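QA checklist item 7 of 12: single-chain prediction sanity check.
[x] sequence parsed
[x] length recorded as 203
[x] structure emitted
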Amino acid sequence: MSHRFQRGLVVGKFSPLHRGHMAVIETALAQCAQVIVLSYSVPEFAGCEASRRERWLRTLFPRATILVVDDVHMPPNHAPDDVHRLFCARLLRDRLHSTVDAVFTSEDYGDGLASTLSAQLGSAVMHVCVDRARAGVPISGTQLRADVHTYRTFLHPEVYSDFVGRVCFLGAESSGKSTLATALAAEFDTTHAPEFGRELSEA
């Protein structure tokens, strides 16, 4: 199977990884023989720690080369664009010993990143912009972090499950556990598991 590019790059905080990010990565995988996905964030966002992001990415994109960076040398999220571009170039050159010939984004920073990578890695890098207007997947990480449950349809179940709290009711028979669980599930628009203790005891 021939590909448009030999090696592509996707960079993001992925906090959390949503279907817009997934569309960018899937586009890269369709057009590249190999895809590198870089993720880092300073500070980390609650529920989106490096270990979780790495698990999401490795589970959902087993064909990609995943590097989730979690060390003291990362630039903060508010650092100037040039600092982030050079950091990505260093990761590719010094950590992965790799070059890329395309960078895939859905953001305006893509052109500048491609230009810096071209200069730092010594080979031409093209920017491929995917759904910049977010017409296909109208969501952002900021929206999701503000209310992850309202926008849960924009998250893969593998990701959303990490944000679902679980409640366990313990008590004697006929103390109202099933009634309370049913009412809470209705209140929070979710599901509940029926009582199992009685069935287990009888078995």
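[x] summary fact logged: The chain is about 40% helix and 15% strand.
[ ] second reviewer sign-off
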